[in-house]
Amino acid sequence: MKVILDLDTGIDDALALAYALAHPDLELIGVTVTYGNVPVELGVRNTLVLLELLGAGDVPVFAGTQPAGFQVKPISAFIHGRNGIGDVLLPPPRGQVQEESAVEFLCRAAREYGEDLVIIPTGPSTTIAAALKAEPALADTRIVMMGGALTVPGNVTTWSEANVAQDPAATDFLFRTARDVTMVGLDVTLQTLLTAAETRQWRGLGTRAGRVYADMLDYYIRAYAAIEPDLGGCGLHDPLAVAVAADPSLVTCFDTNLACETTGTTPGRTIGDVARMKEPHKAAHVAVEVDAPRFAAELMDKLNSLLQQH
């Protein structure tokens, strides 16, 4: 299947990127870059650099939009590092961002590939919502998003997850417009885990890519140890969304129609849409259980193979 990643390229986005490249059933036809963990400009740089590191410098990268006055939140800088990739220093990319915008590319891809296309957003929904407004055909495209929290507390407020909190209105529009959206949220991503035992495997490969990914993830694990010491590692948020896009059987979903609250006392809350509860078509599939051991094993198998080559 053909996939587009919509990344705010921090450390778990870097894992998602590598997993998409490593999975034999996924053809990464482009990466659109949004804001969140880092500003769009830095996210573009990180994406280009990582694609080249992983031998995929031919994958095109497209810049999305960013709200005026956007500032990276201190907690994001702490978790992902000042440069978004664990303060690992990499040389400037040789490639360039595409002149075509992220929205234009998403719209074109929806028209060209139809049901063969899957979009995987792992940041705020801003770019995806703009594309849905611009191209009606995109509403029929399968979307597997990392974001939201239905049965567990949020990680920004007690009700809101970080990606959704950046642009609740865009997430609400996505939920009300897209006809097939899987929400891979904190309900399942916090059940997955990567530890220093795994990063030692990557370091032991003796390759540049293995060392870079080990350095990034060790930084991420240390940040998690400071803010969630009981977890024992780092959550695998964004790569789980990629894995579910390739293999939906990894998760058990609750089918419903979702909304995202944009006003009142709980903006950013992802919740069932009361107005559409009785509609027979359930557009949203909320992951509530995950086969974490199988996912972790598949992630390590695929990433070990990819990182061994570079």
TrEMBL record:
Boundaries of each Inosine/uridine-preferring nucleoside hydrolase domain copy?
Answer: 3-296
Superkingdom of origin organism: Bacteria
InterPro entries according to UniProt? Inosine/uridine_hydrolase_dom (IPR001910), IUNH (IPR023186), Ribo_hydro-like (IPR036452)
Gene Ontology terms for molecular function:
hydrolase activity
What CDD domains is this protein classified in? nuc_hydro_CaPnhB (cd02650)
Origin organism is Corynebacterium striatum
Name of this chain's protein: Nucleoside hydrolase
Q: Which UniProt keywords apply?
A: Glycosidase, Hydrolase
